[in-house]
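Cont'd.
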Amino acid sequence: MSGFTEDEAFEAAAVPLSQRAMAQHHMPYLDGLNPAQREAVETLQGPVLMLAGAGTGKTKALTTRIAHLLATGTARPHEILAVTFTNKAAREMKQRIGGLMGEAVEGMPWLGTFHAVCVKLLRRHAELIGENVSALDQIIEDPYDKGPVPRPPNQSLPKGASAANNGLHLKSNFTILDTDDQIRLLKQLLAASNIDEKRWPARMLSGIIDGWKNKAWTPDNVPVAESSAFDGKGVDLYAAYQRRLLELNAVDFGDILLHVVTIFQKHPDVLEQYQRWFRYILVDEYQDTNVSQYLWLRLLAQGHKNICCVGDDDQSIYGWRGAEVGNILRFEKDFPGAHVVRLEENYRSTPHILAAASGLIANNKNRLGKTLKTSQKDQGYRVRLMGEWDGDAEARWVGEKIEDHWAGRSEEAKNRFNPRLKNFGQELDRRAKAGLGPISEHDYIKQAFETGEVYRNLKTLNLVRALLKKNDPSSENMLGAVKDYRVNKFGLDEIAILVRASHQMRAFEDRFLSIGLPYRVIGGPRFYERMEIRDAMAYFRLAVSPTDDLAFERIVNTPKRGLGDKAQQTIQRTARSNGVSLLEGARLCCQGKLLGGKGLKELTILVDSVDRWTAQVRAEADTHVELAEMILDESGYTTFWQNDKTPEAPGRLENLKELVKALENFDNLQGFLEHVSLIMDNETEEAGEKVSIMTLHAAKGLEFPAVFLPGWEDGLFPSQRSMDESGLQGLEEERRLAYVGITRAEEICTISFAANRRVYGQWQSAMPSRFIDELPPDHVEVLTPPGLYGGGYGAAAAPASAVGSDLHDKAHKADVYNSPGWKRLQARSGQRGVSQPAEARNMTIDLDAVSAFTEGDRVFHQKFGYGEVMGIEGDKLEIEFDKAGAKHVVARFVVSADQADDVPF
DNA sequence: TGATATACTATTTTT
DNA sequence: TAGTATATCA
């Protein structure tokens, strides 16, 4: 809270602010802004919508706005509510505000993620959740103000909800469950309700409930239209689940927002406090807000109406997680008189890349529409397009290209690589610190060339361009030199591969491993989601609060203590019949000798250990770090992994050490547990220059000089499933994803696709993505050799010279767009529908193709070569290949050996 | 109870 | 195909 009590904050808010805000002495932080950014920063009063296209400096505008609020004395740190979606974004904002203001600013207590801020609020008012869950309103509130909807009389109130009247309510020290706990809990509920978990899996239910929570529907608020969900039992189970959570004094991620919204709706006095308190509200990535978040913001903003939302409807890619693009589209309706600022000046990508991305996204119908501009004169390189035979060939080709681009491969280049000179501003700083005088841009660049300290960065290039504009005679040469140097040369950190689905990463990992190309996968399982971390955390949780049943369940038999299903059931039963926690139930089992042999002995030891740990936590005898280590040792958990012979065991031990180290940043175990559930960051940034591999979703907000976008095939990208499930909306979201991908690239963007790919172990052929057709041809350079779709196998292995090693070469383009293969692609792609059912695509059994063969036939397959048919199964042939051995192959990928010369694919 | 065999399913995942 | 979850057996 940075030293402010609630009262003080209110007092501060009540006092009119001094007019020193208007004292317009020079504000250096405003200098670097373009007019639109400046407008967004300086329009402090009233609602503001900042539509910020990719790479237009929206974080800069947002942070500068906060700095401006503070520097002008318009608001104090604690009066500003600034919310982001990720911890990373929140951190970055804090840092940049600090940078703008100098070190003088004290922390901003209300800058954080939606969840972090709401947890803070919920801990203050937790007790308001639970009492009278359903008594208050019998109307369903429509978030979008079409008027309240009366509850239909035929819908009975779910049992669980109204039963919560017996004084049960949330307590301020509630635990936050993650997805894993959530599923386990639901599984128990399903088992208790005798629901067949096979037909109605807990995962599905959790998805449904999450969806409802995202829409801000409490169990008694779920519309009738949803009553058939989950075999008609969805709503009841939801109510039961909420009740169970209350009993456990726990909330899940969805609850964090939902509960706070509920409190605001039912307790106007509480809401009013915060409306007064938060005089200025700022929201990042507004296009990603769901209904709960939207309601929360709208309620809070009704106070001072100083809300500034930043977003880009074209980058809305989380619709499947409940995000409502509609929120950004209707901002002006929600906040009449809203000031709309468009940031359209792009500082990231070259004109060619920008044009390609703009051309693609123009195919979307539902959007506000923005035109990204750049002042960059040099067009840069066209978006490169490459087709390959299969996924492996694609990975191979990308690997080769990266090696070509890798500046570090040449020693000479490495010597010239000097991040210190990344831009002119940094150089000025460096000189100031070193006591050297200032330097002109011109001299800076000249010197950089003379000393060989040139960093091939867009910023350097832009400096040279600036000199060109000023008609500086020497700049012409410099421009040439910079460009020569820059062609194809990057550090590995500057290269990224962005895939649609994580399984695509594998091909690249395999390939890069075998050629020794350093890479790093971004995303993956997060640190706090790893099994060993969660186990360890469960031990800590139990030590801190012995009644944490979920934690107990998790660790009773981890490591193995001979306490299987039966023993655990006995414990459960004992606990329930005595109305006590599982730990107490276990204690009773031990005392009453309700268990046999090994289990009894082990359980007694466990119960005793937990008692001891709890006592030590309370006594604060040891430091919490020592205590944590002790718990892990005494429980046998460390030993468990030490004895484990699987290859990942050492890594897991390493992670445990990491966890203990992380504890050092907190005062005690409780504090650690409270914060950790919201910080799911993967902070283990190993050093070293590496290529990044990640999903397109993970890439949002990032930028790289060179970007590879593989797997642009219809069905994979756009994903068939998205199109099947969400039709045109789904397709448009996929297109936005493509747009996000392209706009990550600063200088070189390479799109590729494969004609064949193995999907679930089956070879499948695919069409190039429809998004490829939508790229404006003038901004695309096709590297795909004409042979790929005419000459068949081997075309992909064409020598580099034929693959267009010169990025400026336009000659290939016309050739390929006109080649028979390309035309055939176009013709075939014309048959595609928006939401062709998956079955039609995948389950076609081409019996004609099978019947063309009999056992003993000599055949040819593009990948495996020549072989002999050994048998026929359905639409598949069993073939003994000369080189590749026995394989099962779909018949239409095979031709008889004598036709092998004329293969269409 | 614990280990092995079989069956099943399979995007994207900010917190 | 491969990874996981459940079923079965020792």
